[in-house]
Design a protein that fits this description.
Shape: globular
Number of helices: 13
Keywords: ATP-binding, Carbohydrate metabolism, Kinase, Nucleotide-binding, Transferase
Number of domains: 2
Structural class: alpha/beta
CATH superfamily of the largest domain: ATPase, nucleotide binding domain
Helix content: 25-40%
CATH architecture of the largest domain: 2-Layer Sandwich
Distance between the termini: 25 Å
EC number: 2.7.1.170
CATH class of the largest domain: Alpha Beta
CATH topology of the largest domain: Nucleotidyltransferase, domain 5
Order of helices and strands: EEEHHEEHEHHEEEHHHHHHEHEHE
Pathway: Amino-sugar metabolism; 1,6-anhydro-N-acetylmuramate degradation; Cell wall biogenesis; peptidoglycan recycling
Bound molecules: adenosine-5'-triphosphate, the ligand CC(=O)N[C@H]1[C@@H]2OC[C@@H](O2)[C@@H](O)[C@@H]1O[C@H](C)C(=O)O
GO molecular function, one term: kinase activity
GO biological process, one term: amino sugar metabolic process
Strand content: 15-25%
Amino acid sequence: MLRTIGLMSGTSLDGVDAAWVETDGEAIGRIGPTLTLPYEPALRRDLRRLLDLAGDIAADDPFLADCVRRLTERHAEAVERLRAEAARALGEDADLIGFHGQTILHRPAPPGERRPGRTWQVGDAAWLARQAGLPVAHDFRSADVAAGGQGAPLVPVVHAALAASLPRPLAVLNLGGVGNVTWIGPGEAGHGRLIAFDTGPANGPLDDWARTHAQTDYDRDGLLALAGQPDGAVLGRLMAHPWLAAPPPKSLDRLDFDRALKEAGAGALSPPDGAATLVAFAAVCVAAASRHLPEPPLQWLVAGGGRRNPAMMKALAAALEQPVRPVEVAGWNGDALEAQAFGVLAARVLRGLPITFPGTTGAPEPLTGGRIARPVG
Ligand SMILES: Nc1ncnc2c1ncn2[C@@H]1O[C@H](COP(=O)(O)OP(=O)(O)OP(=O)(O)O)[C@@H](O)[C@H]1O
Ligand SMILES: CC(=O)N[C@H]1[C@@H]2OC[C@@H](O2)[C@@H](O)[C@@H]1O[C@H](C)C(=O)O
């Protein structure tokens, strides 16, 4: 088995999650320490600006280069701290890093269309490899998008490995900036029984709303949303969005719904009602996703920051017919799950195992992907 460090900087732009996991890319051995290094407000602000600029920015733009340098330095710091923690707690170092980078643009070709799509994760893998003295698996999504896949979600294969002994069918819901669901079918745990796709916007629009209307980075504990009422008219217009009815495979850019939210009139709502409406919409998106699953799951296990928002968990429980529980009931770590997954995916990249599948990204067949940056010298 390899001792991996997985690194994830998600669409919420709140920081880098890091996790130590022993794995051969298929089985998962010891699960070690985890940590989150939050980004300082200036880096958060600049990354958010980079999302707005990404469609037009040149690859050698100095602002981009500066963001990439700061982002990668923060990742290197996370690696260094996690290695120290793994040495202290387990007496172990690491063999391999899985570095997702920061998605700044995600425009896969719509399913069935033959034109090439584009997905862009920034981060300097070669620098990180040299700095850490370890091989770094990175660029996990491009090969899939080039082959006509959605390039996301990638974590489902790891959900399936972790869920091997849980009752199925099971749905694992990640609520980050964007939401995504993994459905793991009954019977033998195998890749053919995996269905996964993005559900819709989750915390992303709510974070933007809290920033504009409450001067906070997010609606902590759902206090703003719990003080408001969802607006039926706005919600109704949002629910009519064709994306919800479209069958999987499908994935989203963090900003994909910004225009629809504006056009639906969300901007005119009071701060609490706007927050309540965005929470209700995230939950309605998951309910819409449930209609695309082959069979109802026995339960929904929720990972990601959204599970910490009581308003979101309440809205989900109301929108879904099955029990909704945080992944901790299965003994998983809902804050570190994606980081752990990129450690496992790194091992898969190194071993040349497929990382995307017809049921997850709509890849034409199970596909390998990712690249390895090696420390030189
Ligand atoms: N206590 C809390 N109350 C309310 N919301 C919370 C709380 N803690 C975290 N969140 C929400 O969770 C978000 C972070 O979630 P997470 O770290 O899962 O996202 P991510 O990994 O960046 O996104 P993605 O999975 O889309 O890549 C925050 O931006 C916030 O909206
Ligand atoms: C393009 C991109 O970075 N997508 C993220 C995003 O955040 C959640 C959802 O949208 C998911 O599809 C994906 O991340 C997770 C880690 C995944 O690929 O499984």
